[in-house]
Amino acid sequence: MKKLFTIYLILAGILIGLPLLGIWISGENLQPYLQFPPLTHDVQHAPFSWPVFIGMALFILLTIAPFLIKIVRTPLKHSSSSPVRSFPWWGWASFLFGLFFWIIAWTRFPLFNAIQPYTFTPQWLAYIGIINALTYRKKGSCLLTQNPRHFLLLFPLSAAFWWFFEYLNRFVQNWSYTGFPFHSPLHYFISATLPFATVLPAILSTEEWLATHPKTTAGLDDGPVLKIPAPKTAAILTFFISAIALFLIGRFPDQLYPLLWVAPLLLILSFQTLSNRPAFFPELQKGDWRSIVRFALAALICGFFWELWNVHSLAKWIYSVPYVDRFHLFEMPLLGFAGYLPFGLECAVIAALLNQNLTPKSTKEKPSKRK
Predict the structure, then answer these.
(1) Cβ of 288: how many Cβ atoms within 10 Å?
(2) Cα 9 to Cα 4, 266, 363, distances in angstroms
(3) pLDDT tens across 206-233, in order?
(4) Domain coordinates of the chain in residue numbers?
(5) Which stretches in the chain have pLDDT values below 70?
(6) Distance of alpha carbon 145 from alpha carbon 141, whole angstroms
(7) Cα–Cα distance between 193 and 190 in angstroms, integer?
(8) pTM for the complete prediction?
């Protein structure tokens, strides 16, 4: 356990230290990147560019098109499904709770002035309750009911996880917050940490709900087999490329900002291989892409609701994205939604790390009783 802690401590140091090291070597002042609260300064990003927009759009389409074509062309196999249960009472309670705070978030009733900047957390707690209730209705269990202790651990892990992306945003400054009154650094920390804590539970719960609908990943259990001939060599190469990207991200934010969502994932994947830890997504070696697609889609679904509830809220975030800042859906530039796809995989990896380190060995070794 001590060795494992050391490994993760080194990984955290690499992820946090590389962007700062790049700024320090360039001779810039580090103070703006270390201040707290992390208030984003106004930065003049590169203007909209049609060639960049078209190039990125084509890359995104070419990446996701094979999966979409496979899903659409694959007929759903008929299988005996368990009877649908009634929607649980706590699901209805979550719906009413969320509806109330949605109304508060998008209106300006003087009676609710004190809570209007803080509606994001209750809305997402409601979403988590609803999506778990939908899963429970479908299969009789869900993340919330299967292992409440493990589920609760996702919340503090999620807060720390998203604070890391807030830290990386200091170097690219693609989003900033407005309308949020903070009275002290401690007030800011608590008020921000609470909504950050809902990210992982929401995405993992959505992924589980998607798994109850086989059509969302139909045919993806028989995809291309992903076997890397020299995994250690590939991991070393991936590690250095990702490390260089993080090192340079603060010096070339307009050019490298998409790597904010990709480089940390690749670093963790390569670090896992180099430290002889279990591989993430081992099912890819058998051609099964269902899990990886579900996590990407779960993040995209959650991203839609994040942006939806944000658009008319009092305390909200706005975007400033180089080259592609046009054709907005809510506050988000249309191509920006593609960032949710790799982010979903990062959520899967972080959740897998939690499972690997908290699941007792005796539990891991028990054969599955599922048929």
Answers:
(1) 18
(2) 9, 17, 26
(3) 999 999 999 999 999 988 888 888 889 9
(4) 90-360
(5) 1-5, 39-42, 78-83, 357-371
(6) 6
(7) 5
(8) 0.92
